[in-house]
Predict the 3D structure of the following.
Amino acid sequence: MRKAAVMIGFGAFFLTLALLMRFYAYPKLAVIPSDQNTQQTVTDDHASYFDADTVKPGSGKIITKATVVANKEMTKKASKELGRDVIVIDQWQTTDNVNDKGQTASPPMDASTQQYAVDKSSGEAVKWSGNMLDGKPTNYEGQTIKFPFQVDKNKTYRYWDSTLGKAFPMKYAGSEDIKGLKTYKFTQTIPKTKFTTMDVPGEVFGLPKGSKLADRYYTNDRTVWVEPETGVMMKLQEKQHQTLEVPNAKPVDAMPTTSTMTDETIKKNVDDYKTKSSQLKILRLWAPLLLGLLGLFALLLGLFVSLRAGRERRAARHERRDEREVDEVRHDDDSTLVFGDHPHSRGAHSADERGQY
């Protein structure tokens, strides 16, 4: 019985540990870290663009840098206001052309600042009074800096586009290895949309001199490669096409470009999250599964030992009872011989007595 109790105890312990790993430890660790601080770099070595510095079309390398930092103070404030566990992200992004000397101009071609709250587990934007895009209150929606943990390739996600200030559908388009790491590829198409107006010299459109108020349009075919366990983007590519348009003139390309994350950025992403992905999968799946099987085996073995021990005890009791019954029968027989005459003795005695008479 002692062995059975020990085995059952170990089985219960392993099963409890498996449940704690899956439903307590994993949800605690599968969140955006509170010390989030990353920089992503995207480039196109052969871009065409409207150069605001020279006020005419240009070409060459452009570089976009996005810095993402968790704001701990605002995170506490937003979590308290919303009554849920969120994280507030501060994001700065600049895009600029690079001259022949490898230097970027000042000011940049494009720049933006953002602050928004996201769910720590899903990475999805959360409605909050402090959400801002370039200092203006903005209703953020969809995925922003990452996808959910355990990405579902059968689901259509909504991914935020900061140029237009809204989210668009993004769908699974296959799996692909990025530097030895399996990723899910998602694609998004943003239709041609006007997003701003700007003063442009009429000569840019082949019109007489003078400033023209031009509409600026934007389309984008965006592709992201997502590590499915963590939901972190390993690689990003954007095929943007921006145009400047005025009535009675041919549209002018403002920025036709295919920008892709640099190899250094991709390598750093893979190096940072390859191990984290494996650790999370072990914690979510393999460790609970192994401990659960060990626990179940120990429980069943303990029950088997307990049942066998019970059968052995019952068999021993029956054997002892049978032995007692045999002893009692023998005892009764011995009592008859002591206190009564043996049948043959009585017969012989009677014959002797008859012979005497």
The longest helix spans residues 263-339.
